[in-house]
Structure formats: C-alpha cells, structure tokens
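Q: Hi! First time doing this. I have a protein sequence and I read that you can turn it into a structure. Is that right? Here it is:
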Amino acid sequence: MDIKLRLTLLNFLEFAVWGAYLTSMGSYLAGAGMGANISYFYAVQGFVSLFMPALMGIVADRWVEAQKLVSLCHLVAGCTMLAAGAYAYSAGSEVQFSILFTLYTVNVAFFMPTIALTNSVAYNALEKAGLDTVKTFPPIRVWGTIGFIITMIGVDLAGLQTTPGQFVVSGVLSLILCLYALTMPKCPVGSKGKGKGIVEALGLRAFTLFRDRRMAIFFIFSFLLGAALQVTNGYANPYISSFASIPEYADTFGVKHANILISLSQMSEALCILLIPFFLKRYGIKVVMLISMFAWVFRFGFFGLGNPGNLVWLFILSMVVYGVAFDFFNISGSLFVDKETDKDIRSSAQGLFMMMTNGLGASIGTLAAGAVVNALVYNQPAELQQAGWHNAWFVFAGYSLVVAIAFYFLFNYKHETEK
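A: Yes, that's right. Below is the predicted 3D structure, encoded as structure tokens:
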C-alpha cells in the first residue's frame, strides 16, 4: 500500500478514537447525574497535556521507537476506555464519579501523547519516502478531522451519544490502532545523550521569551483564548439535548441528533485551514487573532440566542464560525511562534505555546466554565435551567469580547503585506 494511504488511515483512526466521545460525553454524564462534574472530565485532558506528551516524547527520542510507543499508548488507552464503558454499563444509574473519572484520566493520559507521536511517525515515513512533508502532510492530516466527524455521526446514528457505548467504540478503535501502528515504518531512536531533556521538552527554555514584551503579551492572550477551546466540546451537546424537556423542540432534528449538528463545526474547521495562508500574508497575526477572538464571541453568542426550532439557523452559524475561531487561533498562533523565535528555541517555543493554550488555558478555562454552568444551570431548579443555559453562553461570549478588546489595545504588531 502507498505510504500516503497508510498514513491517511493512521490519522483517520487516531482522531476517530477521539471523535467517538469528545463532543457527546457531556450528554452521557449529565444523564448519569454527573452534570456538575463535566468540567473535570474535559479539564483533565489539559492537565495531562502539560507533561505526558513531553515525557512520551523523551521516551520516543531515547528508548522506544515512536511507532511502537504509539501502539503501547493505545493499548493502555483502549483497555482503560473499554473498562470505563464496561463499568458504566454494569453500574447503570449507580455509576460513581471516582471510578469512572479515574479510568478516564488514565485513558487520556496515554491518548493525548499519541497525537504528537503519530505526527512524528508520519514525518519520519514521508522523509524516508523522499516526500516533502510541508506539501504532503496537510492533505493526510485532514483525514484525521474526517475520522473525527465520522465517529461523531456514527455514535449519534447508533443512539450511543447518551450511553457508555461511546466509550466502547473509542476503546475498540484504540485497540485497532494499537495493532495498526506496528505496521508503520521504523522510527529512529537516538542515544541517551542526544534526546531532549525534560527542560527542553516541556518548553521551559522558551520562558526567556517573556522578556520580550510583545511575545509575553502574545503568550498571555494565548492562555486567555485557550480558555475557550474545550467549552463547547463539553457543553454544546448537553445544552442542545436539554431542549428535549420543551415539547415545542422535543422532536426537532437538533435535539435528536445533536452530534450530527455539532459535526458541522469540525467540517468548518477542515475547510478554514485553507484560508489561513491568505489571511496571514494579507493581514498579519494581529488581525487574524482578532478575527479568531470575535469568532469566539459569535460562536458563544449564537448558541445563547438560538434554539433547535425556528432559530436553528443560529446554531448552524455558530458551527460555521467555529472553524475560524479554532483554526485562526491554534494554527496561526503556532506559525507566528515559529516565525518570531530563534531556531535554537523554536521547538521549546512551540511547547510553550501548546502549554499555554491546550494545557493551562484549556484546563483552567474548562473548570471556570464548569463553575459558570453549575451556578446558572445545574444548581438551579429545573424550570430555570433553560434560561440558565442561555445566560451561560452570554457569559462566555462576553468574556471573549473583553479578551478581544484588550488584545487590540495591548498587542502591538506592524504587518508588512507580502507581495
């Protein structure tokens, strides 16, 4: 099989594992009486991302071939996710937070490093084949997003988005990938002296960039914007599904198939990647980041204003702008860091960017969002919860607006348009 097709399947499976539960887990947790704990399940992904990808990267650099480490990580992740699904099914309405959360935490601790490791496997395979990674990898990576979308929709159509069945699907896919990863081309392993140290791998050397006022402000706002990354993953599905309690909306497509509706976000994300080169060259990082920030305002605001009935078009608009909100921040920010830092700390700078956004930002932001939702929704009487949902989305939109305005005035960057 052609190496590009093999890597396409690798990326497809990698993100299919994630898509099986990431956007629907909140609905299951809410139905199981753990709505107030949703934020913990999503925040732990960020906390383990602070150290596990770096540690597994060191292991791959020094001792274990990357493709074998991907296999080992998915073995642990798959087994613990299957255990989580089996436990949740057996416990039924008596499922305990402590047991389910522990199994889930072990799962994500070993799954999150595989995202970077599969990239390393792909780069190595493409280089061995004499292919240009910059030109060849993006079309391969897009199939990861497609895999995510397909399992989202599959879990929805199978009626599993409010059941532990989503964990079982994810666990089975992990075990399939565990075996498939072993068929990838062998990755080199360096000597103990050549591997990255823990300081470099965690991006700590890049903290010297905080001496530069402009870079310090950029990283601070990366943290502040990173707080928005997991909010809709955790709460969009429970919110849309909550309309089932209102007879007017109970039989609408959105309520019955929230995951399919939400999958429009990932479709938009896949398409918006193509817009980034034009916008960065034409307008520069400040304008692109501002576009992302205001897109988050609309993302949350449309959720607060919409409903799955006559105003479902607002939900659809929220899904469309998500691609801009996510891509224009994550990918453009990474490209900016690559361009603005010296070669000797470039990798560490990328580690710092990921730490500020997907690590600290996403974790703290998810916990804060959980506190808002708990106060306005889950801690309120049933008759007030629907209004609480709307108010929660407006709080998130207001937060994003304040961040955008502050960024406009505090971040100084003069862009010269490329001809």
